[in-house]
UniProtKB/TrEMBL annotation:
GO terms for molecular function: signaling receptor activity. It is a peripheral membrane protein. The gene is EDIL3. It is found in: Endomembrane system; Secreted. InterPro entries: FA58C (IPR000421), Galactose-bd-like_sf (IPR008979), Neuropilin_MCO_CoagFactor (IPR050633). Keywords: Cell adhesion, Disulfide bond, Membrane, Secreted, Signal. Its main location: membrane. GO terms for biological process: cell adhesion. SUPFAM superfamilies: Galactose-binding domain-like. This is EGF like repeats and discoidin domains 3. It comes from the Eukaryota. Pfam families: F5_F8_type_C. Residues 47-204 form the F5/8 type C domain. It comes from Ficedula albicollis (Collared flycatcher).
């Protein structure tokens, strides 16, 4: 029979009072409250919300890029940065760079300092041709002029994030520790076909 001790109750009270939430039971323990429940910080749970690429809360003017590809050199088939929105539909439904090299970037201006805790990327098809970014780096800035590359803390070098392997599957990466910045750049590092991105950022206001 499962039962709680007074110490279990006091531990639960302490955790809830200090901003932790019971997420789910892991298995049926007899004693040992920590064996019975999994905990996560309420702040951790609340600071992983979509920041607005898919919803449109991030407006077109906030999204810029190093270059733009035009299918058949036609403006009506311009793969502009404003189209780099997760799950965007249509014949031209993503950002594609005008050049395939490691100097390309997609930039998002969040307008205010923001805590960025994750990123979701997605590829697309250009008239049936599968295109996606297979890996990328991240750069961040508060003034849009001076940039830092996000570092792998253990290896003390630029972190390369795993990207997509097809044109449609979501690929989510957690950014830990988080980035605190107004501007974020996605720097494609490897790709299939052409450099092509749809994306969403996850996080919350920096003061949270």
């Amino acid at each position: 029979n499962n039962r709680f001790l007074l110490s279990d109750f006091l531990l639960l009270f302490f955790l809830l009072h200090n901003g932790f939430s019971v997420v789910s039971p892991s298995f049926s323990g007899v004693l040992g409250f920590l064996d019975f429940y999994t905990f996560k910080s309420v702040k951790e749970l609340s600071c992983s919300e979509p920041l607005g690429m898919k919803s449109g809360h991030i407006q077109d003017f906030q999204i810029t890029a190093s270059s733009v590809f035009r299918t058949l050199n036609m403006d009506m088939f311009a793969w502009e940065p404003r189209k780099a929105r997760l799950d965007k539909q249509g014949k031209v439904n993503a950002w594609t760079s005008g050049h395939n090299d490691q100097s390309q970037w997609l930039q998002i201006d969040l307008l205010i300092p923001t805590k960025i805790t994750g990123i979701i990327t997605q590829g697309a098809k250009d008239f049936g041709h599968v295109q996606f970014v297979g890996s990328y780096k991240l750069a961040y800035s508060n003034d849009g002029e001076h940039w830092k590359i996000y570092q792998d803390e253990k290896q003390k070098k630029d972190k390369v994030f795993q990207g997509n392997f097809d044109n449609d599957t979501h690929r989510k990466n957690v950014i830990e520790p988080p980035i605190y910045a107004r501007h974020l750049r996605i720097l494609p590092w490897s790709w299939y076909g052409r450099i092509t991105l749809r994306s969403e950022l996850l996080g919350c206001a920096a003061e949270d």
